[in-house]
Amino acid sequence: MLDVRQLHVYFGRGAARNHAVRGISFSVSRGGCFGLVGESGSGKSTVLKAICGLAPNWHGSLHLAQTALTQKRGLDFCRRVQMVFQDPYGSLHPRHTIDQILAEPLRIHRFDDIKTRIIRALEEVGLDLTFRFRYPHQLSGGQRQRVAVARALVTNPEVVLLDEPTSALDVSVQAEVLNLLARLRRERNLTYVLVSHDLSVVAHMCDRLAVMQHGRIVESLDIDKLHNQRPSHPYTRQLLLASRGYDRKTIDAFKDFD
Amino acid sequence: MKAQSRTLLEVEGLNIRYPTPRGAVEAVRNVSFTLGREKLGIVGESGSGKTQTGRAILRLTETHARVRADKLHFDGIDLLAANEQTMRRIRGRRISMIMQDPKYSLNPVMSVGEQIAEVFRVHSGAPARKARRRAVEMLDSVRIRDPERVYRAYPHEVSGGMGQRIMIAMMMTPNPDIIIADEPTSALDVTVQLQVLALLDDMVSDNGMGLIFISHDLELVASFCDRVVVMYAGQVVEVVDAGALHQARHPYTRGLLNCLPRIGTHGRDLPVLQRRSSWAAGISPRNRHA
Fold it and tell me: B42: which DSSP letter?
């Protein structure tokens, strides 16, 4: 469904040019869920930005369902590939009602029966219809992230890019949103690329994952291999240990990978 | 040492009520706990009153709120009766608080290094050059690479995770007796998060500091803290030893533990917390004392 080969992404130019992603490759089949894990600044979110067209300074090859992507993306691409951002407090327009937020992509993509689609989208993400004419500030973090998911799904996309979708949420609400995302993927055969710094979230959601560091993939592995505690790269092993909570001896053995 | 002298902070029957046009909101209800030279976790969902409890200790609750307590004592000082002057001497120097959001807690027009140096200068009266050196050391201790460069950076030039580490460095600078850490590591990468916790851990074991660690991540708190206060709807539902948390009985505590994704839960739905009104002892958030 999605194929990424030798992707390089840059920000800035001249002396200030930042080589954020340094030649990464992966592919996700239709209906699959691929995870990208890494520390902040490792370039994992930048990969998503390059895929959806928000970071135009890239080279390498990007294919969506066998079609090569260029720097310029058409309207059809935007309908098929949608993104859910990390911060539900910043990604929703504060002066638009939920109705307006969900109607905007529908209007851009010239859908008809906008009202029915909005109602269906709200029902699908488990939001009561009374939320339709409320503003984002009247919603809790979890409810806002549900709106963000509804907005991404309202155009019937095939690929959904998830950038830390639950890192701003409480653990109890995180469980609800993760269940929602898993259910929607099953029901609609969606393809996910999930970015997170939390290895347990990625391990819970994905079939396959890649560990990124300093713009490179240090290791790609199937989820079974992670379960069997057999990652080969020391950085992956360290992440695995860190996901088990606080243990002083383990932490003192942590290394900085430069 | 006698048990009494080891107690740093005593909170008994703490109530925080916000009057609103539609009746009072009981943010915190009858919360009691003591803090010694230990790591005490306060766990709960957002809105459970954990941050409000932390702020009340430093008397940083918004002015229109009504704070009442049978006892709020720190080192023999009645924090509710103390005058502003006394409070100013306590805040930062003796009890400091690491706030949740570094974006709003740092001064945007001052370099982060100068802000840390200022804290050191104000609290210890050290000369500027010494304060600068100390600030760079502190930045280094919270695992910031290239502390000299970050010293000169402004808050908008650093990432959220780095901002949080800067806040932590700043709050640790005066060597306080108590640190109240409100979700101090939620924006950090897992490995850095644990390393920063190790630093706080050292301050507790080496300097005899008391730490109040506010978090919604029960698993982390269980592995890091000595005791855990579990809060729901402004009330303490139980206080447990961190080691025994996995045997906790209360359905809320169990629910918070079970809803965490783990390596090995792949493909299954996570159990979602089913909230029961009986946990809040029959008091709905808005009413009663209206």
Answer: E
- Residue bearing tokens 């299954």: B268
Contacts of B45 in chain A (CB under 8 A): 170-173
* Higher pLDDT, residue A187 or A170: A187
Q: Which long-range contacts does B198-204 make (Cβ < 8 Å, 24+ apart)? A: B198/A248, B198/A251, B198/A252, B199/B141, B199/B142, B199/B168, B199/B172, B200/B39, B200/B168, B200/B172, B201/A248, B201/B39, B203/B172, B203/B175, B203/B179, B204/B37, B204/B38, B204/B39
Please state, in angstroms and rounded to a whole number, the distance separating the CA atoms of residues A124 and A185.
12
Confidence band of A140 (pLDDT split at 50, 70, 90): confident
B126-155 confidence digits (pLDDT tens) = 899 999 999 999 999 888 888 999 999 999
DSSP 8-state secondary structure symbol assigned to residue B190: H
More confident: A240 or B274: A240
Q: A117 to chain B nearest CA, in Å?
A: 27
How many whole angstroms separate alpha carbon B204 and alpha carbon B200? 6
Q: Quick check: A254 and B191 CB within 8 A?
A: yes
Nearest neighbour of A197 by CB, restricted to B190, B260, B265 = B190
Domain ranges of chain A: 2-252
Closest CA to B213 of B180, B164, B177: B180
For A34-76, the pLDDT digits (tens) are 999 988 778 899 999 999 999 889 999 999 999 999 888 889 9
Above pLDDT 70, what percent of chain A? 99
Give the best residue of B104, B190, B275 to mutate against chain A (max A CB count within 10 A): B190
pLDDT, position B30: 93
The model's pLDDT over A80-103, given as tens digits with 9 standing for 90+, comes to: 999 999 888 889 999 999 999 999
Extract the tokens encoding B178. Answer: 């108590």
Confidence check: pLDDT of B4 > 50: no
Work out the minimum CA distance from A237 to partner chain B, whole angstroms.
Answer: 11
Burial of B141 (0-12, 13-18, 19+ CB in 10 A): middle
Q: For the whole model, what pTM was predicted? A: 0.84
- The answer, yes or no, to whether ipTM is higher than 0.85 is no
Q: Is B101 exposed, middle or buried (0-12, 13-18, 19+ CB in 10 A)?
A: middle
Secondary structure (3-state) at A75: helix
What value, to the nearest 5°, has the Cα angle with vertex B270 and ends B267 and B275? 165
Structural tokens at position A122 = 């709200």
Q: How many Cβ pairs closer than 8 A exist between chain A and B?
A: 109
Among partner residues B194, B197, B218, which is closest to A171 by beta-carbon distance? B218
Give the DSSP H or E segment for B195: helix B190-207
**To the nearest whole angstrom, how far is the Cα of A74 from the nearest Cα of chain B?**
32
Distances (CA, A) of A114 to A91, A102, A132, A160, B120: 21, 9, 13, 21, 59
Nearest to B223 among A200, A206, A245 (CB): A245
Task: Output the CATH code of domain A2-252.
Answer: 3.40.50.300
- Asked if A245's CB is within 8 angstroms of B261's CB, the reply is no
What is the b/e burial string over B38-52, where b = at least 16 CB atoms within 10 angstroms of the residue's CB?
bbbbbbbbbbbbbbb
